[in-house]
Amino acid sequence: MIVVSHRRRERSKERGGATWIRVAGLGLALSAPAAVVAQPTFGPQGRATVLENATILRPGGETTPAAMIVIRGESIEHIGPAIEIQGRATRIDLQGAFVTPGLIDVCSALGMTATRSASPVNRAFDAFDRYNAEMFREAFRNGVTMMYLPATGASGAVGTSAIVRLAPGEGGGWAGEVVRQDAALCIDLGSGESALRRLSTLDALRKQFKDAKSYRESLETYDEELKEYEKKIKERAEKEAKEKKEGDKPAPGGAPTQQRPEQPAPAEGAKPEEKKDEITKPKKPGTDPGAEVLLKTLDREMPVRIRADRSSDILNALDLAREFNLDVTIEGGSEAHLVARQLADAEVPVVLGSMLGPGLHRDDQFRRARDDAAAVLSAAGVKWALGSGATDQAAGRFLLLNAQMLAAHVPGVDPLSLVTKDAADFLGLGDRFGRLQPRRPADLVVWSGHPLEADSRVQRVYVDGRLVFRDDGSTESAAGGEEQ
Asked: Which residue from 396, 350, 346 is spatially nearest to 377, judged by alpha carbons?
């Protein structure tokens, strides 16, 4: 139980037997929850939040008991031995509760709706339900504070992904802060579809990339023709100016140079005589937003995540990457262990999905999945990460459990590291997230016990230094202030 010296209770309203709570400015009715999503707390300028007597659990298993964490503004100011805090502060005695970084899901479907059609211009964040109070509560209840959201829907080039922190909006009424928009182009090779359909999808993708190249060539040709046009216009203007200047010069003896007689106007209905030196401005090609996205991948300015579960689809993805020089990551990879050597040779990483799905007596793209696939990939030298998967929203609620199940089959792997620092590094955000360090964003989770123990539960979640979730029985207030 969390003990505080001064309490400020989160008040709720009783309406018709349901408990009403305020979620990021949005009032929603929920049925007697065991925990609530807390209204973010914004203290006075400079006031600190002090978590005392905490057991810090760092990725890798190292613990620091009886520690203090000082949060000021959006960042961690201090973490370690107890220090003296100047001024007023919100002090919370954790009495040995464990504190970890916020969990990061490198592939999640939580809060997502599928796109209606495949298009490179679709954006995952547009399909993310930022008002889903139940989704936020379940994510926080399981310690998740950040998610990579792939665009999903039909097979082909589906759209671009986003990395989202579950931070409440200060304006109220919505939640979800985009850490990185257009994080990758999402491609789905349709591993659950027929072989003919999958080959058709692959052919269509090749055509799209080739069309994008042609589109760029047309733009380059236009640029060259435009430069030549502008050059000719400039030369003609200079020539006409020179002729005019020479025509205005006085003739020998002081008389002006005789002007050319004006040409008679053409008769009515007569066609104007075409000028031999007429310069035509080139026509600019129409804008193709989809091709613009694909060009970023061809220039390796944007990575590509290809969802492929069957080994044959993974090999096709590697061929596509080689043909167009794409920076590719395989997502799903149920049969990635069967082509581990090819993945290692191509230096293509894999994002493995949920370990929670049924694996017996099925005849689909998951029938040859193995619990020790990560160990096989590691032995081959393939870089991999673990997410909850882009197909099952419920799996995102059990991210840490998923990591524990995988770690049981891979010697030396720490489950907490998989979903904190390793996940942040994999997403290219390791310099800001995934570790509890001073001057980093205060995204952290307070657990009642060791988070890998079955009876441990999440008591508090802070995102960006703000309390966004707490156990229903806990309270907080500013130390030295009046009880509210």
From this structure: 350
* H-state helical runs in 325-408: 340-346, 373-380, 399-407
Give the residue extent of every domain in the chain: 3-101+435-471, 103-227+285-433
pLDDT tens for the chain, 484 residues long, are 444 433 333 333 333 333 333 333 333 333 333 444 444 443 445 689 999 999 999 888 889 999 999 999 999 999 999 999 888 899 999 999 999 999 999 999 888 876 667 899 999 999 888 888 788 888 899 999 999 999 988 899 999 999 999 987 766 556 778 999 999 999 999 998 999 999 999 999 999 999 999 999 999 999 999 999 999 899 888 888 888 887 776 666 655 555 555 556 666 665 555 555 688 999 999 999 999 999 999 999 999 999 999 999 999 999 999 999 999 999 999 999 999 999 999 999 999 988 776 554 455 667 678 889 999 999 999 999 999 987 777 677 789 999 999 999 998 999 999 999 999 999 999 999 999 999 999 999 999 999 999 899 999 999 999 999 998 544 343 333 323 2
CATH class of 103-227+285-433: alpha beta
The first and second tokens of residue 87, run together, are: 């001024």
Q: How many CA atoms lie within 13 A of 454 on its CB side?
A: 1
Which CATH code fits 3-101+435-471?
2.30.40.10
